[in-house]
Amino acid sequence: MNQTAIARSWVEHANGHNDFPLQNLPLGIFSRPGEAQRCGVAIGDAVLDLEALLVADVFEGAAKVAAEATRGGALNGFFALAPETRRALRECLQALLGEHGEHRSTVEAALYPASECQLHMPARVGDYTDFYVGIEHAKNVGKLFRPDNPLLPNYKYVPIGYHGRASTLRPSGTEVRRPKGQTLPAGQTEPSFGPCARLDYELELGIWIGQGNALGEAIPLARASEHVAGFCLLNDWSARDIQAWEYQPLGPFLSKSFITSVSPWVVMSEALEPFRCAQPGRPEGDPRPLPYLTDAVDQARGAFDIELEVLLVTPRMREQGLAAHRLTLSNTRSMYWTVAQMVAHHSVNGCQLQPGDLFGSGTLSGAQPGAFGSLLEITEGGKQPIELASGEVRTFLEDGDEIILRARCTREGVASIGFGECRGTVIAAN
Question: Which of 13, 100, 120, 137 is catalytic?
Fold first, then answer.
């Protein structure tokens, strides 16, 4: 057994922690009251200040190079490093925080309670691309509009995606103001303007790009995983009524660009290595991917086994002291295309990817009710309301509702890790 998988930390509350044991150590950007934003590491219920450790000069060699690259209030420089340099920092941190770690008093002085820290966007995002690789979601939504032909012919040949709005990416906890826009009310022939009435969430995996590529040079599939720095949770908030009116012929626009919520901790690729798995085989009759999207190693180890959960809390539920209502429990294994295939396809035309670019996976629904990753699917387009313990019903989100995304990786013989939470509360339109 890998000794790292069973290693313990002298930070006692990290041992057995639901999200952030020694085996995870995600990076993020934090600040304390009156202080500048800087890089931190989540360990148990604490945040480790990397800037303080740099000042104390506890790093050497490649680990020091990597730690220096986290300076500046964003992780873009760190993401740009070679994977082996990033790994050197991770290994050094695991040694420092391990139960026999050196410089304990110095490291302990750089630990702050997470409750005292504000978390920010981990990187400056130049470009954000949202994919559509959750095939069960694609089928469920397709059935609502094309019952006899839910998937369009290109879906099983091309990792579908569109360019989103990087300027409206926000960290977990940012309020979600109900957007306004044009909609076409049922039975009408002309649109009207006003607040969205069919506000929805979408459960997605976020993918942070590490090293980029030069303009005009494609990233080969066999090397694509080396260009992924880490992962997060992503909520692609969606205004379904605005979307229905605007999406033809060019796809989502204002229905998606008002805000996208991102969990603030970047779970590094190395932390997810124990949870890699084979990409589920394609059903008989599905086409074989074109050669640039075909790689035996990626098919054998390119998928991830990550449990995904969505919870809803309404204002009345808070008043009554009720537990959050689970809307969704699904898994990243529902992805029809791997992360590496997404990277390879995005760059195959020579498109330049850059450190800190962000991908969304698309909504990751399972095949059965209870695993659907959006209200559009759960309520069949608003036809089947959800009944809550508070006595309320929901078809789409109302003002004051809070959506919470969570993710967890478990495997026998390996320490479980999580992603933290991605939260957002809906507030009324201006």
Answer: 137
Instruction: Report how far residue 408's alpha carbon sits from residue 18's, in angstroms, rounded to the nearest whole number.
Output: 8
Q: Find, among 211, 178, 194, 25, the residue nearest to 101 by Cα.
A: 25
Q: For strands 260-262 and 169-171, give the pairing.
A: parallel
| Residue pLDDT, tens place only, 105-140 | 999 999 999 999 999 999 999 999 999 999 999 999
- The residues of the chain that CATH labels 3.90.850.10 are 128-427
List where CATH 2.30.30.230 sits in the chain: 3-120
- SS3 (DSSP) at 409: strand
What end-to-end distance do the CA atoms of the chain give, in Å? 56
| Whole-number pLDDT of residue 164 | 96
Dihedral sign, CA of 250, 292, 204, 24?
A: negative
Query: Would you call the peptide bond into 249 cis, given omega within 30 degrees of 0 as the criterion?
Result: yes
Of 5-9, 71-75, 254-258, 307-311, the least confident = 5-9
Residue with tokens 């839910």: 150
Please tell me the chain's helix, strand, coil percentages from 3-state DSSP, rounded to the nearest 5: 25, 30, 45
What is residue 401's three-state secondary structure?
coil
Residues making up the chain, counted from first to last: 430
Alpha carbon 281 to its chain's center: 24
- Which residue do the tokens 């890089």 mark? 39
Annotation says 163 is catalytic: no
pLDDT digits (tens, 9 = 90+) for 382-430: 999 999 999 999 999 999 999 999 999 999 999 999 999 999 999 999 9
Identify the CATH number of the domain defined by range 3-120. Answer: 2.30.30.230
Predicted TM-score of the model (pTM) = 0.96
Whole-angstrom distance, CA of residue 225 vs CA of residue 382: 39
With both helix axes pointing from N to C terminus, report the angle between 61-68 and 83-97 in degrees, rounded to the nearest 10: 100
Where does 128-427 sit in CATH, by number? Answer: 3.90.850.10
